[in-house]
Amino acid sequence: MSTTKSLFVRRYVPGLVLLAIGAYFGFVVALAEFNNINLGFGLATGLQAAIAAIAAVAGTISFLIVDDVETSAKGPNILLVAGIICFLIGSYIGLFVAPPEQHMGEVQRIMYVHVPTAWNALLAMTVAFASAVVFLFKSDWKWDAVMEGSIEVGVVFAFLLCAQGSIWAKPTWNVWWDWDPRLTTTAVLLFAFLGILALRRFVEDPVKRGIWSSVATIIAYVDVPIVYFSVKWWNSLHQTQSSPGTVSKQFYLPLRANAIGILFLMTAFIMLRARISALRLKQELAPPPLVEAQLGEVV
Amino acid sequence: MIRGVAQFAIEAESIARRYGRRWALADVSFRLAPGRVMMVAGRNGSGKSTLLRVLATAIRPDRGEARVAGFDVVHEREDVRRMSALLSHYSYLYDALTAKENLDVLRNSGQTPALLERVGLAQRAGDPVNTFSAGMRKRLSFARVLLQQPRIVFFDEPYGQLDPEGFALVDQVIGELKESGATVLVATHQVEHVTGYADCSITLEAGRVIATAGALE
Amino acid sequence: MIAALRKELLLQWRTRAQFMAVFVFGASALLLFSFAVGPNAEILRQFSAGFMWLGLLLSSTLTLAESFHAEMENRALEGLLLLPVNPRTIYYGKAIANWLQLVLLGFALVPVMVILYDAGTTKLPQLALVIMLGTAGLSAPGTLYAAMTSQVRSRQTLLPLLLFPLIVPALLASVKLTSLIILGDPMGQLSAWMKLLTAFDAIYWSLCGLLFDRVVEE
């Protein structure tokens, strides 16, 4: 009994280690610098931020990989709580403590939610793409469940992004939509993945459904950079309108807190949604009923 | 074991296949020696068509394994397909094309006129298939099967929609295939008729084998 | 593969009445666009490229869906796969045949565009090239999705739903290129957009071919 439990715990160790590294470089070092204490091993701040981001993402994604979508929801629920806490902290600082930006004023505060949502939306789509590829190669139903979960979460995030973009654009430019390349690509992505969800709805055979939606996900994801560049060029002749993308240094802390919070929330949602998928699939793939009949008897 | 010249023409082990919630095949196992003519009997919905389609690699089994001419039906489908042919409920024909064209687009072997003659469609070779009756489409499907020169043939209701002449044609074709050493499976409702020439038979009910007769192995 | 293509062309030739119907659909779409915008010759000319490509895109859903209709009637596609025939040759045969039909459709819609929108041009070889590259971008993913959706209920709505977001880059590039050809290209953007369109075509013609056999296996 103790060996299985320690095995269970050991699976999560790499993820936790990566998260610790991410937390160190993301928060501890930043806070120390604020107080003029140098804990950063002499690395440039940009590099530290990159290490923090990669470690945090890799750590959280590793939870997705080791998760077998069949066990209890304790793991994702812990992530959910941690995510909510981080998000509340980040939002509080962002909304009430951080000073308003020079040029854009209070409206700019939406960036504390918008930027992390953007990162995580792309991450969700990448998880969907990776799951699709793995599913095509390994035909393990877990990855079909994870793919369905990440597509749905990605769709929700993409929708939120478009909504946030509109909320920012109206007071700033007096239009609801400003054709910003990133936002426009998100809208196209939203429709593409909604189409894939519709495809899943209409296909009843689980095997076909899994394979077709994997193929569609791969095709859609490969398109994302192409769509981005084409929209960017298409828009470049017109007045380039800035979007809430750039942040100056003082605002890093709430941004990172929210980013981590939303990262945890995203992963938790994917894991929970994948569990629902897995349960549904289990019901669909139930083995043939055992029938007790003698040879020759009409069943 | 030499591939293609296996000990058994067909080996099925606990094959199961579902459609939605219904298991069309629940658990089918048998082995058939090469060169035999085996009848597959059973009521409507007993799984006869599904069994033939799984063995012909038209669909995958959800459970179990099967080998045709020694080749696995899931992992070596191309090889199974090369050795076998399926006469299905579906005619596999292009309505917009003529009888001759339907055969030529598969394989331009020059045998088409002879084959059409053989199945009694020489007169209608140049007519589009959408003008054909059900019986004539069946005959063309036969020509399609013969064109592939299969070693293992799966006939799903070959007598369906045919007149007495057509019946005779089917019997002749099966007889010739048997002469040439091919293995033939015939799923049919014409149990009395086929029992006359079949070497053995299995009977399906609700996706399971409930009876066998004759020498399968 | 040539055999597969020949079969497709033969089937298309036999059902050529379809092509007329699709052309009329496309031409009516162009007419409706001008009604929607109003009889302002300047505006119509400026947006002529967009209208033409939208008309072509809408018509393509009909063509693409139709391309698998013959395969599904009597399950002929299954019959082909059981021969055995390499699924990839089936895909490329169909994709090329669809592409040729769309190119013809595009060429046929050009005079309609010229007349309705006063959008003439002397640079016909370049226009032809753009039409060929643009329709290639529609045909590759379109054939793949048509293969999927032809086996599903609600196939008419599902095909455009899947295809339209995907081909946004091809649409943008084709419209832009056609516009530059008709209205002039003062800043020399032509080659950049050509490269984008060609890259899109190259990526999707290879990717979709690779994925096709997973899509049609049972």
Describe it.
Chain A contains eight helices and no strands. Chain A has helices at residues 2-34, 45-66, 74-97, 111-138, 141-173, 181-202, 206-236, 252-284. The longest helix of chain A has 33 residues, at 2-34. Chain A is globular, with a radius of gyration of 22 Å. In chain A, 42% of the residues are buried. Chain B has a domain at 10-92 and 152-214: Rossmann fold. Chain B is globular and about 45 Å long. Chain C has 218 residues and is mostly helical. Chain C has one domain (2-216). Chain C contains ten helices and no strands. Classes of the chains: A mainly alpha (299), B alpha/beta (217), C mainly alpha (218). Chains in contact: A-B, A-C, B-C. The interface between A and C is medium-sized, with 30 and 33 residues.
- Count the domains of chain C: 1
How many helices of chain A?
8
| Global Rg of chain A | 22 Å
Largest interface: chains, residues each = A-C, 30 and 33 residues
Mean pLDDT of chain A: 82
Which overall shape of chain C is indicated by the principal axes computed on the Cα atoms? globular
Helix content of chain A: over 70%
Portion in strands of chain C: under 5%
* Poorly predicted regions of chain A: 293-299
Q: Supply the helix-strand structural class of chain C.
A: mainly alpha
Low-confidence runs of chain C: none
Estimated structural class of chain A: mainly alpha
Mean pLDDT of chain C: 92
- Rounded to the nearest angstrom, the distance between the terminal CA atoms of chain A is 44 Å
Number of strands of chain A: 0
Labels describing this entry:
heterotrimer; A: 299 residues; 2 domains; 8 helices; B: 217 residues; alpha/beta; Rossmann fold; 4-stranded antiparallel beta sheet; 7 helices
